[in-house]
Amino acid sequence: MLVVAYFLLGLGGLICAINIFLSFILPLIKMLRRRESRTASGFPIVGSFMVVVALVGHSFPAWLRWMSIVLALLDTGGIHWFLGTLIYAKCRSRSSHGGSNDVA
Fold this sequence. Notes:
By secondary structure, this protein is mostly helical. It has one domain (2-96). It is built from four helices and no strands. The mean pLDDT is 85.
């Protein structure tokens, strides 16, 4: 079972790294080269989910556990980024309307 946990952690970490690359590094490279092109989206939710599932059931060395947590947090395809974006959009839409629904 430990082999499966290491496999999930490795594959999930790789997917998280791909999402981080596609979200942060690739757009920066394109901007520096002054190219406009579409950016691929990566694998939403999959990487973070695999890392969390692997971390929940098994004990890993501390350095590997922390590295995995950081990768999962930076993964822009994770559920936490999705929820954060929804909350941000909701707060932004309220503030753009004056923040009040009072009728004069």
